């Protein structure tokens, strides 16, 4: 069949489109959602079939989604052949996990190999994610999954010396400390090659926020050049493919809107180990509407992270922080980037909580370095910020990654006001995040919301609680409609 480009973004999932009356569909018995193996010269790809009933595709054509097109890079007019793929070798392991059995390292390796080779459908991968949730993946399995993810990806070697890194487990809107921490650490002469994810369940990931200020889709040689030149970087991990299996799992988790402790451990540590890190600090916000809900859950996750890190000889520390309320003013890629720049520039209106968290995390990471005295890290981090050295280093990293740019601003904004006067008793992080996502974040970089209110603040009826930012009137309306009933701020009337 003649190959054409469908021009349809299926978000990393290879999809092919055939007319229902084409000879291949009839002879091979292909129906919608069938897994098909496509042969293009020496290149093969396993994809999901969508059947076209209109005239978008001719009966002698096959149209490729963007993910499939980019994977094969076909020449104009090329012909492709199709057949049913061999059953995935890991199907037995997948079924075993679904029925509650414990898997060993060889089974996890088979699952990750099949996932990376597209031999497992998104439905099968979703079943694996669900079967691994909660307490259904133990410590040993988390370590085995980490090892399997490492085996199917690439690993960086930075040679002798320390390689520092930090990671936040997420769940706290606006907690965009990474660019500030990287700038501080690199300005002090340490290596900190930071690979970050795009948003999974949040309105912005570190890569989304960084991308509004500088390119992040660097390949491995480019990433290495930046680190060798500036000591640090902030790049999207999906493009350097240090843990491609994890990128696939993230794709599955995003619409499901959850991940499990075991998979979170494997996700975080597989990328840190693959990036060549020797010392890693984990920021773990704990709060009733954060990803980690309680101190008990935090202790459990910290134990899992520490156990797996130890198995790989990785030095790891966990910094538990207040996860009851958002950090900074902005929630959404560009709004969070504005907060980051204000802190780095020492602006008078820079969010104090974002600066304090960044300094605390940078200080804790510095104190993990052998020979650095305990209790001195925060003061060193503050000095680097105050002197402007952190800003200079951040801008230098941006230039090395392809050039700095100022964050964009949304075209449409609207305030959501308090219905009663009183004191803010609680803030629902998840509802704030949902409002920002309904406004268009992270897909529309300038979208999201902005608020400086915190628990304990007193508000008057009619006072703005937060401002919604959107790139279209429709997204603004969606966010405002939800905000009208969601009530992310719990206001107690003051007697």
From TrEMBL:
Its EC number is 2.4.2.4. InterPro entries: Glycosyl_Trfase_fam3 (IPR000312), Glycosyl_Trfase_fam3_N_dom (IPR017459), Glycosyl_Trfase_fam3_N_dom_sf (IPR036320), Nuc_phospho_transferase (IPR035902), PYNP-like_C_sf (IPR036566), PYNP_C (IPR013102), Pyrmidine_PPase_CS (IPR017872), Thym_Pase_Put (IPR028579). One of its GO terms (molecular function) is thymidine phosphorylase activity. SUPFAM superfamilies: Nucleoside phosphorylase/phosphoribosyltransferase catalytic domain, Nucleoside phosphorylase/phosphoribosyltransferase N-terminal domain, Pyrimidine nucleoside phosphorylase C-terminal domain. It catalyses: thymidine + phosphate = 2-deoxy-alpha-D-ribose 1-phosphate + thymine. Residues 423-490 form the Pyrimidine nucleoside phosphorylase C-terminal domain. Keywords: Glycosyltransferase, Transferase. PANTHER family: THYMIDINE PHOSPHORYLASE (PTHR10515:SF0). This is Putative thymidine phosphorylase. NCBIfam families: ARCH_P_rylase, PRK04350.1. One of its GO terms (cellular component) is cytosol. It is an enzyme of class 2 (transferase). GO terms for biological process: pyrimidine nucleobase metabolic process; pyrimidine nucleoside metabolic process. The keyword Transport does not apply. Belongs to the thymidine/pyrimidine-nucleoside phosphorylase family. Type 2 subfamily.
């Amino acid at each position: 069949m003649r190959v054409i480009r469908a021009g349809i973004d299926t978000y990393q999932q290879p999809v092919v489109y055939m007319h229902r009356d084409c000879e291949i569909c009839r002879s091979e018995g292909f129906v919608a959602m069938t897994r098909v193996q496509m042969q293009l010269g020496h290149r093969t790809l396993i994809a999901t079939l969508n059947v076209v009933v209109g005239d978008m595709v001719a009966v002698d054509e096959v149209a490729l989604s963007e993910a499939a097109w980019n994977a094969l890079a076909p020449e104009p007019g090329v012909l492709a052949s199709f057949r049913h793929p061999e059953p995935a070798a890991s199907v037995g392991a997948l079924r075993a996990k679904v029925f509650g059995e414990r898997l060993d390292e060889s089974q996890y390796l088979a699952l990750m190999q099949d996932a990376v080779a597209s031999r497992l459908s998104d439905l099968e991968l979703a079943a694996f994610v669900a079967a691994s949730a909660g307490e259904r993946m133990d410590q040993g399995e988390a370590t085995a999954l980490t090892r399997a993810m490492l085996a199917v990806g690439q690993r960086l070697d930075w040679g002798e010396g320390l390689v520092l890194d930090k990671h936040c487990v997420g769940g706290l809107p606006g907690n965009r400390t990474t660019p500030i921490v990287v700038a501080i650490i690199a300005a002090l002469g340490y290596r900190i090659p930071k690979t970050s994810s795009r948003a999974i369940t949040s309105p912005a990931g570190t890569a989304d926020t960084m991308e509004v200020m500088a390119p992040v889709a660097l390949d491995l040689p480019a990433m290495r050049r930046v680190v060798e030149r500036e000591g640090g970087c902030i790049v999207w991990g999906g493009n350097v493919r240090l843990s491609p299996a994890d990128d696939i799992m993230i794709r599955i988790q995003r619409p499901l809107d959850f991940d499990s402790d075991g998979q979170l451990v494997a996700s975080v540590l597989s990328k840190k180990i693959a990036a060549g890190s020797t010392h890693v600090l984990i920021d773990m916000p704990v709060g009733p509407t954060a990803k980690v809900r309680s101190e008990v859950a935090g202790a459990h996750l910290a134990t899992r992270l520490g156990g797996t890190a130890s198995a790989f000889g990785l030095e790891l520390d966990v910094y538990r922080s207040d996860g009851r309320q958002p950090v900074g003013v902005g929630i959404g890629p560009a709004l969070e980037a504005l907060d980051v720049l204000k802190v780095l520039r020492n602006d008078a209106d820079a969010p104090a909580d974002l600066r304090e968290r960044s300094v605390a995390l940078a200080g804790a990471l510095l104190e993990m370095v052998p020979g650095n005295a305990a209790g001195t890290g925060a003061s060193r981090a503050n000095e680097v910020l105050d002197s402007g050295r952190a800003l200079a280093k951040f801008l230098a990293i941006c230039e090395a990654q392809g050039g700095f740019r100022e964050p964009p601003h949304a075209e449409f904004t609207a305030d959501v006001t308090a219905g009663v006067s009183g004191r803010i008793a609680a803030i629902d992080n998840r509802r704030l995040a949902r409002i920002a996502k309904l406004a268009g974040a992270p897909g529309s970089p300038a979208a999201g919301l902005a608020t400086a209110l915190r628990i304990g603040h007193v508000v008057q009826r009619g006072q703005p609680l937060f401002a919604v930012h959107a790139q279209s009137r429709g997204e603004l309306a969606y966010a405002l409609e939800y905000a009208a009933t969601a009530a992310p701020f719990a206001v107690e009337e003051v007697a």
